[in-house]
Amino acid sequence: MAADRIHTIDHEGEHFSVRGPAVAPRSPQGRPVIARIAERGTFDAVFLADGPELPGSAVNQPWNSLEPTVLLTAIGSVVERIGLIGTISTTFNDPYNIARRFAAVDHVTHGRVALNFVTTQNPESAANFGLSTLPARPRHRGRV
């Protein structure tokens, strides 16, 4: 794959318009639809950004709180060639668990998964893990 031919979908699918039945692009049902369209358009990969915090409007926007390996597995079941890239926070995930989850997706999708490692910077994430603040940087830097 030539570097000048890499095409991806942004994680929110904002620039897509789908003809036919209405499907919310960020919904669990919409993401596979967008991935199929991207694959037909010869895109190379679908990228899912992630953050371990719940948005203030989680009831109205649950798409932002869905775990990426689950979504990538769902997407991978309806496409054949497109790459699947997921983001994972090294702040709140241990290396073994990251490796186990993404190895499962990689196996199910026949080697089409890739990882985007990030450290969590949103302080709202800490509460989801029983903490009042984010861990000090040295604790999670270089974990994976």
What order do the helices and strands come in, and which of them pair?
Elements (H helix, E strand, L loop, with lengths): L7 E2 L20 H11 L4 E4 L19 H9 L6 E7 L5 H14 L4 E6 L18 H4 L4
Helix pairs in contact: 1-2, 2-3
Describe the structure in your own words.
This protein has about 140 residues and is α/β, with parallel strands linked by helices. The chain has a single domain, classed as TIM Barrel (Alpha-Beta Barrel), CATH 3.20.20. It is built from 4 helices and 4 strands; from the N terminus they run E-H-E-H-E-H-E-H. A 4-stranded parallel beta sheet has the order 1-2-3-4, with helices on one face. Helix 3 links the parallel strand 3 and strand 4. Helix 1 crosses helix 2 and helix 2 packs parallel to helix 3. The longest helix has 14 residues. The chain is globular and about 45 Å long. The two termini are about 25 Å apart.
Rg over alpha carbons: 16 Å
As for the number of domains, it is 1
Named at the architecture level, the CATH assignment is: Alpha-Beta Barrel
Count of DSSP H/I helices = 4
User: Total strand count, please?
Assistant: 4
Give average pLDDT, whole number: 77
Adjacency order of strands in the biggest sheet: 1-2-3-4
Q: From N to C, what is the helix and strand string?
A: EHEHEHEH
Overall shape: it is: globular
What is the level 1 CATH name? Answer: Alpha Beta
At the third CATH level, what is the topology name?
A: TIM Barrel
Distance between the termini: 27 Å
pLDDT < 50 runs, ≥5 residues: 1-18
By CATH, the superfamily comes out as Luciferase-like domain
Q: What does the main sheet amount to?
A: 4 strands, parallel
| Share in β-strands | 5-15%
Overall helicity: 25-40%
Q: In terms of structural class, how would the helical and strand content be classed? A: alpha/beta
